Amino acid sequence: MICSENCQYPWQCMICDRVSDYFIKQCPGCQTPKEQFCRSMNTNCIILCINQDELNYQEQFQTIGIIEMECNQDRHKQEIIKLKISKISTKEIDDNEYFKKEFIIRPLTVPQIQSPQFQSVTQEQANDGVLFESTFQYLNDMDLVIFENRAKAQMFLNASKQNNLQCPIKQYIELKSVFPFQKPQLTMNDMLRWLKIPFSSQQFALTSVVIELLKRSYTFQTQMLQQLQFPIPEEQYRLQGFTNLILFDIQVSCIEDNRQNYNQEIIEISAKVYDIDQRKIVRNFQKYIKPVDNPIISEFCTKQTGIKQFQINNGISLQQAINQLTDIFKELGRFCIITKGDFDLLILKKEAQRKNIKLVRNFTYYINIKKVFPKSLRSKTSLKDPSMTEMLECCGLLQYDNHESETAKVDDLANLVDYLIFNENVRFDEKMLQYTCKI
């Protein structure tokens, strides 16, 4: 119960700075719950008697541990190379003094630092780093452990397994899932912005976010705890949507003058099967297709695609290529085709209809990677969907000497999908689907 005398004074939202009447429960501007983020104004002559049980304000944890990390850029064997451990006492949160320690971890299976231009750890530092298990002694006496997201918690568990160690953490809280302002692709930058925390870098900013939440009377409850156990098949199935992704791309014939009566035909199909659980390519498919309407491709087409006439002559029919791809589909679980634009499956559908080739249902829906590329990574000055080159550059994956062949382009698509899943927590699911036609 809350009793008050002369409580007719406003309060100001800490998020949008809107000034509102005291007796409302949440900010009418940004819907912020008042008890979580607000600051009172003109608080003279206020007497508040608060029943702690009714408000459920009692803190559940006394010592909170925060684990932050940086990993190498190797897509097959991701390892922790830098670890920060912080311990915060909820009773002394206003003192701004807490335990914190950073470690450089010596890589186990990938000793060479990958993409050093994107890492804060040099090769020399990694060589002189400590063993991963030496950090476990600092995880004692913690009532609660907080990770930024589920992927980071999984990285910690995987590091324990790689070193043949028993993971010392059994339960944790994923801050992303309990942050007061949740959205599908919540990032660290979003948390810093919502809390108005100035920070020069997002790396190792998690501790600042947790401290600010505690200072604003946010409480972590036992019902927020998650088990540090992976994989969870039913959860992975529900959240990820698909067990495999087909990274798909085609090349078509073309001429320089682009006559209206010229029928473009598919002359190459490239595809890779990306297994989400294994985090790697498990199947490759690449076939040259013999065109029917225009069996001789132009020099302009060869210049544009890199495909030569002798490769076309040794190719197979479009019907045979579709049949072979369909056989691959039958061996997979729930999967979806990923493209780098709308053109690929639309031109496939058009040519299949013209040549009376029946397509299975899996060819009628797809995900355009440009449409689902996270807004947090896009250019703030452009309203258009990013190009493949721009997406690779935003993710630090662009290789300027890697765009000569169609296979290399599909490799780029595979690297981009892998990065988005495990670095940006993008979940490819049914909400992202586009259709060439409805069935």
Automatic annotation (TrEMBL):
SMART domains: EXOIII. One of its GO terms (molecular function) is nucleic acid binding. Signal peptide: none annotated. This is Exonuclease domain-containing protein. InterPro entries: 3-5_Exoribonuclease (IPR051274), ERI-1_3'hExo-like (IPR047201), Ribonucl_H (IPR013520), RNaseH-like_sf (IPR012337), RNaseH_sf (IPR036397). The keyword Hydrolase applies. Residues 244-415 form the Exonuclease domain. Keywords: Exonuclease, Hydrolase, Nuclease.
